[in-house]
Amino acid sequence: MTQPLQRRTMLALAGALLLSSGCGFRLRGNFTAPFSTLYLQMRENTRFAAQLTRTIEAGSNVRIVSRPEEAEAVFELLDMRRERDVLSINALGRAREYELTLSMQFRVTSPDGFEFIEATTLTTTRDLSYSESEFLSREKEEEILYGDMESDILAQVVRCLEAAKSPES
């Protein structure tokens, strides 16, 4: 790059940063919670728990701790349920389309009993078409859809954590 071109590029970048900082722009996923340490009361060896830990620590001021005694807040997974309901059937009476539902209920409390987030249920659904000629791919597609639904629920959990009430309010 030539010297004048580098200068113009740097000035354009600086201008863009100034404009974006004045409009309330912030990077997606960055938030501040009313607590700095969180214990996840759930099975640790699941994909969801790993994603939740990674997302919280990477996008907030919160550090996940390994023991509840070290935490200012406890994320308690009360229930996580997968359901599959038949939406439509073919002429032979076999299922042709399913509705997949993923529901999760959780709450976030402090060790002294303050509820940062009261018991909350989050739900997401997807439709799954079924063809008998594609029997083997249906199971894989179902797992992919459930993974996508977990990502949606995870984003909702993060928004709930961001909106958690503080003990002072």
Automatic annotation (TrEMBL):
Protein's membrane topology: Lipid-anchor
Spans through the membrane: none
GO molecular function: lipopolysaccharide binding
UniProt xrefs under InterPro entries: LPS_assembly_LptE
Subunit structure, interactors included: Component of the lipopolysaccharide transport and assembly complex. Interacts with LptD.
Family: Belongs to the LptE lipoprotein family.
Name of the protein in question: LPS-assembly lipoprotein LptE
Name of the gene encoding the protein in the UniProt record: lptE
